[in-house]
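Field: sequence (string)
Field: structure_tokens (string)

Example rows 1 and 2, in order.
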Amino acid sequence: FAEWYVCCFCSYIQYSNIAARVLREALRTELRADAAKRNESHVKFTPWANGRPARK
């Protein structure tokens, strides 16, 4: 791990994303659908004003 990580000049996040993608591609077809669901991410944005979350 360490040699590849240093050699590629990528961050740990990039390395783990590459490893996860390779693992998902290597899965059997019946397991790929479940793995693809875990690949989704949900983000919630909260606007801030004066050091506190602003309400809508």
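Row 2 begins here:
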Amino acid sequence: MTKQPPIPLADWAGWHALPPDRQQPAHDKDKLQNLRPDPLPAHVGLWLDRCLFEPKASEDAPDDHPGRRALYASAIEALDPVAEPPALTHYRTLFAAWERLARTDHPGVLGRVCEVRARSRVLLHPNSGASVTDGGILLHHSYGVPYLPGTALKGLCRAFADRLQEETGGKIDSPNGAVLPEGWIDRLFGHLPCQGDRGGEASLCDFWDALWVPPEPGSPGAESPLALDVVNPHHGAYYSKSSPGQDGERVPPKESDPPIPTHRLTIRPGARFLVRIESADDPAFGAWLDWILTALLLPALDNEGIGTRTTSGYGRLVGVDGPAGGGAAGGATPSERDLALISRTRNDGALHATFADGKFATLRGERARQIFQSLSDTVRRRIDRNKPTRLQVVYRKQGNAYTIEDIQETPTPSTPAAT
């Protein structure tokens, strides 16, 4: 049997992703800029990593990437909710299962969930010549969508805690109102054995990767989470060492050097991500998780930013309910009423309500069991089978969390007065 020569993956993708009447020779740069796959890619990450339809850069034109514009445009379109392409349809199913897992309490584990929204572009990928995106975007290996790594969120929290410790002289109030003891950062986030004479210590809390929240089809402002950004480096020859002077040294940069506009993929402002942090199921840890979210993570995302180019305003995210507060939990607020999706943890009977704006309320104990038993048999069966069940929920904000006060099958026009 004759062994066939290997085929470059980019060539294979070009033959299979494009119809024969749209395939163009690699040297036709004008047409390469307008190529579109049909159908759109089902995995955007694999598409960007392996399917660049263009020749390698030559010495005469090292920055000439005619196929990259088409590659980026296809990646953006593949996650656009307006057209509901295959990649987004598949991801919705995966995200729904992941979200149920993130919003459910598990035996021995206590968790907190919040949703954050990008208020500026976000750059997360390290700058590397091995990536088609040149250090613009970080996509999930399995799902092919943008996400915020849990390690980055945890590192941001620790860095922000170190800064607070330095600025306040160590006088930071804990969730119970007492001043935090010395070494609280190491005990909360863990440390390596090389730090001092103590052995290593694990963190008391874990940060999940924050996945992109796909907008509902047809919802106002629904857009792809990816967007193009333009960078204008002015001194490419100086930084790339490609233009040595007469003495062999690099030519110093000049104000007359022309800018070279280049495109990069970024996370679009407005994209939302679901954050979950968790710890061992101990009553004392619940207030600490709330404190980490409201006093460390959300202020750090809003003020410091995550990823690269944060000094230029990139990487800023805010909680969907507004700017984060700080410190310990405050008093209760008046009750409110709204429709919410209801779920239940069967092992302990806890009730959970997820509202359209991203708020999450919960209730445990005997009162949760009483409310559940007051519902009709049909509704209880739907909830226990994890079927979408939307009911009227009376809830109250207590400190940094929301608590369910009542669940009603029949909407009533009146709103209960505050007690």
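free_text_note (row 2): The chain has a mean pLDDT of 76.
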